[in-house]
Amino acid sequence: MPDRPIAVAMSGGVDSSTVAALLVRQGQSVVGLTMQLWNQRRLPELSSDSPSRSGRCCSLDDVYDARRVAEQIGIPYYVVNFEEQFEERVVRPFVAEYLAGRTPVPCTLCNNDIKFDRFLELADSVGAERIATGHYARIGYCEASGRYQLRRAVDSAKDQTYFLFGLTQPQLARTLFPLGELTKPQVRELACSLDLPVAAKNDSQEICFVPNGDYAGFLLAYLKEAGAALPPNYGEIVSENGTTLGQHQGVHHFTVGQRRGLGIATGEPLYVIATDARSQRVVVGGNDALLRDRFFAASVNWISIEPHSQPVRAQVKIRNKHLAAPAWIYPSPSLDRAEVVFDEPQRAVTPGQGAVFYQDDLVLGGGWIE
């Protein structure tokens, strides 16, 4: 009986294309699958002819590139429409979080609920036993604990484990990350050696459904399209002691740590330290006001270790570009919530962002900052 194929999530970029070609070269049976997640023709008022549009992932050009690679390496290839599921599980929660005054991470939601959860179901439908993606991460297996482990990629500059903290043991058991041991330059060289047409293609930089990173613009256009009530377009900017310093056009324009676009001048740098969607107040203060030594994380998912109630020593990352900082993690009795206490206060702990727990290169788990 022939081996069951590996389903490769092909985005049209150099990473996933290299994964597919590499597996074929290794003699694996491969099926290429592209998930159509967002109709790029929606919300035309947000469209732009600027070069930065090419930095968006999951575009029609990406589908074309993925198909071209699949034809070149000689594998079956299918495009599957997941727009409805993507909107329900990613876009709507993204909008709801912003309206609530939090700053969401849609790429993590997409990985948790679409690119692994739904993609594994899709793989089953084509008879695939395992899936492979172009993520920069590594998976190992611990004989002692009987658990699969998620580890950082060799290339620290490209490591994507921050966005993968929601993965489960069954998902890790069926997933391959072939690029986890490689650096980005090595992947480019490999793509060239495989003569892939996307070898020199730029990486995507933007969220697929938010043109040019204009979150507030997307939010308003999406609500208008849905016929939903628009958020208030006014409110006060206040100091920590409640003194009114200025006005703003809605808290959905702000995130914790933001400095630019406040529209006020006081002679010293001011930063957003909190937003309140109910009162439509944006609280600002100096850099020191951004420092927090602790926070709670909700919906905690323990990946590489068995959940337990004992304190855990770890390094904690509170946003993708944050240098993970030493901390103690105190799980709640229910184990799905935890308090994180840093050794040293950290800047701009932002509600809605992910908090990911590491021990060196091992990803213990993560949750959402409350």
Terminal Cα span: 51 Å
What is the level-2 CATH architecture name of the largest domain? 3-Layer(aba) Sandwich
The CATH class label of the largest domain is Alpha Beta
Q: How much of the residues is beta strand, in percent? A: 25-35%
Classified in CATH, the superfamily of the largest domain is HUPs
- Structural Rg: 22 Å
CATH topology of the largest domain: Rossmann fold
The whole-number mean of residue pLDDT values reads: 93
Describe it.
The protein folds into three domains: 6-134 and 178-213, HUPs (Rossmann fold, 3-Layer(aba) Sandwich), CATH 3.40.50; 232-285, Roll (SH3 type barrels), CATH 2.30.30; 291-369, Elongation Factor Tu (Ef-tu), domain 3 (Beta Barrel), CATH 2.40.30.10. It has a six-stranded antiparallel β-barrel with strand order 12-15-14-13-16-17. A five-stranded parallel β-sheet has the order 3-2-1-4-7, sandwiched between helices. With 370 residues, it is an alpha/beta fold. The protein is built from eight helices and 17 strands. 41% of the residues are buried. Strand 8 and strand 9 form a beta hairpin. It has helices at residues 14-25, 60-73, 83-99, 106-115, 117-125, 169-173, 184-193, 215-226, and strands at 6-9, 30-36, 77-81, 130-132, 138-142, 147-151, 175-176, 235-238, 244-248, 271-276, 281-285, 291-302, 312-317, 325-331, 338-347, 354-359, 362-369. The longest helix has 17 residues, at 83-99.
